[in-house]
């Protein structure tokens, strides 16, 4: 059996700030179902320790970036966990990356270098009786794991790094390099040096045996100057090691026919029950009760997500005959823009600032359509939840959005495979054209119901993607053999 150490800074259901946690929580379960033994390493934030009822200390590190650390083993929510308990790095208020003051923890470089260092030590035998075949690092926070393992020499596990969002790279001042404990040769273009700074993600991309990202289309986009965020040259040089594997979702957590968070459960053969959720969502957002399309947004409110374009379009969307429910937080100016629009359109638009996991279930179950106007989107998960719940996605033609939604053009309608609307480019005009197309489809009730059923039949599970990861791991091990 192939053994994998998955390394991530956040894991659902223990702690979550974004889609990374969902993937880090769901992929190990899907891999376990097909015979891959995955153990997950993550930091011991206070909220994580509070959720672990019993844990065993399986290893100790005398000095890990300024203090002692322990490796705790526990089983949580079906996951086999190793937790890095380093109080001097992780026992503090705030979130995983941002402190209680609202600013990044100033020692984030040490906190996540420690995560990578601990992964490398575990990979080379720190925990008695455990030595994984593969170390799989997720995003910049875990990206030094393959760098430390490369420095360990030939007797090491094979390494994989997954890019969840290339925009977040973990770049820190050159002055931290001597503190990392890497050989001096690691400072340079073939190491972690990145335009005069220490690049965590850059180092991981160069050192890993394989690179994956979370959709095939995004894997192509990051090879371009426009999409490569300054790393396109490195990635083009390693294109033979790069693959795109689309994310899945946990279809048990996101199951409209068994969801405890919604007003009425339903499946594709009982779509008439969705109206109960629509009425409940209207009440929750103080919206007028009627049969016009109820559009929704569940997102970080950022430029990347195209939410500035949506904020500029709110008046037009309401004037076109739609209603709008927005859930999210992020850029303060965007938060204010959406709140102002909701005040102008009381009864037609509602806004909830902040992230609410339970509310997002109710939104997907009750809204007619989900708007995702991202400028770039490595994969996206909200559109996968939307497909599962018959909430038809209206998405921009980028990254994983283009890989997971089938546009309702004439051919797709005729073939009965359409699952949503795709628009391009990412402009206010193109978004409104997408909304007008949605209105035309919504007016044809039988066609709309057929599209909902088709969307709900989409395979958004991890099954196929987990097999691709298993094949990738096996290929790496065969190379070594």
UniProtKB/TrEMBL annotation:
<keyword id="KW-0328">Glycosyltransferase</keyword>
<dbReference type="GO" id="GO:0004373">
    <property type="term" value="F:alpha-1,4-glucan glucosyltransferase (UDP-glucose donor) activity"/>
</dbReference>
<feature type="domain" description="Starch synthase catalytic">
    <location>
        <begin position="4"/>
        <end position="236"/>
    </location>
</feature>
<comment type="pathway">
    <text>Glycan biosynthesis; glycogen biosynthesis.</text>
</comment>
<keyword id="KW-0320">Glycogen biosynthesis</keyword>
<comment type="similarity">
    <text>Belongs to the glycosyltransferase 1 family. Bacterial/plant glycogen synthase subfamily.</text>
</comment>
<dbReference type="InterPro" id="IPR011835">
    <property type="entry name" value="GS/SS"/>
</dbReference>
<feature type="binding site">
    <location>
        <position position="16"/>
    </location>
    <ligand>
        <name>ADP-alpha-D-glucose</name>
    </ligand>
</feature>
<protein>
    <recommendedName>
        <fullName>Glycogen synthase</fullName>
        <ecNumber>2.4.1.21</ecNumber>
    </recommendedName>
</protein>
<dbReference type="InterPro" id="IPR013534">
    <property type="entry name" value="Starch_synth_cat_dom"/>
</dbReference>
<comment type="function">
    <text>Synthesizes alpha-1,4-glucan chains using ADP-glucose.</text>
</comment>
<feature type="domain" description="Glycosyl transferase family 1">
    <location>
        <begin position="287"/>
        <end position="441"/>
    </location>
</feature>
<dbReference type="Pfam" id="PF08323">
    <property type="entry name" value="Glyco_transf_5"/>
</dbReference>
<dbReference type="InterPro" id="IPR001296">
    <property type="entry name" value="Glyco_trans_1"/>
</dbReference>
<dbReference type="GO" id="GO:0009011">
    <property type="term" value="F:alpha-1,4-glucan glucosyltransferase (ADP-glucose donor) activity"/>
</dbReference>
<keyword id="KW-0808">Transferase</keyword>
<dbReference type="Pfam" id="PF00534">
    <property type="entry name" value="Glycos_transf_1"/>
</dbReference>
<dbReference type="GO" id="GO:0005829">
    <property type="term" value="C:cytosol"/>
</dbReference>
<dbReference type="GO" id="GO:0005978">
    <property type="term" value="P:glycogen biosynthetic process"/>
</dbReference>
